[in-house]
Amino acid sequence: MQPELHYNTVFDAQQHFRLLLDSMSRPGKINTFPSSNILPPAGLNQAAALTGFALLNADTNYHITVQNSTDIADYLLVNTAAQQVDIAVADYIFLPENHDGRGLHEARVGTPVYPEDSATLIAAAQVISAVAMTDSLKITMNGPGVNGEATVWVKGINPDLLNYLKEQNSEYPLGIDLIITDGQNNVLCLPRSNRFTYTQTN
Fold first, then answer.
1. Residue-wise DSSP of 72-139
2. CA angle (74 as vertex; 68, 79 as ends), nearest 5
3. DSSP strand pairing (136-142 vs 127-129)
4. What is the CATH code of the structural domain delimited by 11-127+158-195?
5. What is the pTM of this model?
6. Name one GO biological process term (predicted).
7. Prior bond to 173 cis, omega within 30?
8. Which site from 36, 37, 171, 176 is most exposed, i.e. has the minimal number of CB atoms within 10 Å?
9. Phi and psi (nearest 5°) for 44?
10. Dist CA 142 CA 147 (whole Å)
11. What is the pLDDT of residues 173-191, one digit of tens each?
């Protein structure tokens, strides 16, 4: 597998890293990666791939829960030099659309001395929107970085994954951060410091 020729590992990575930082510091804000000509393998949308490119390097690692894990692992290795590891030690965990949270009980949540030593989930979704959608989850956030409340609609996220996140983040500062990406290159972050509720829209 060849590395992506349409990706600048310095300029693009820095730009995308700043975008992710902005999303993480401002929960509820939907950011969008600039259009890209990269061609990630099936099971990894462009926004998830670009997130990986920005966050992964030879000093970090990840775990993949999608079925097409071998192709994705080869792709990420060639483009980031990061290695796939067991979920119990992974820095980043890639999830497919509608993942229900099963198998994530071993993911790192940090320790009282090092709460930052935890995993970050990178979950694929179908659509992230600031406009109400039917057949989606309406997520309302509050806490640090949110002016009052912020509301977004996400299609392709399983409520059980959000329930898992709530449980893991109930003893903040321990917990897990969540990055959601969609097929339109949008990204949304739910950091562990944030509190959220959700309802199913019909």
1. HHHHHHHHH--EE--GGG-SEEEE-TT---TT-TTS-B--SS-TT-B-EEEEE-SEEESS--SSEEEE
2. 125
3. unpaired
4. 3.40.50.11310
5. 0.96
6. organic phosphonate metabolic process
7. yes
8. 37
9. -135, 110
10. 8
11. 999 999 999 999 999 999 9
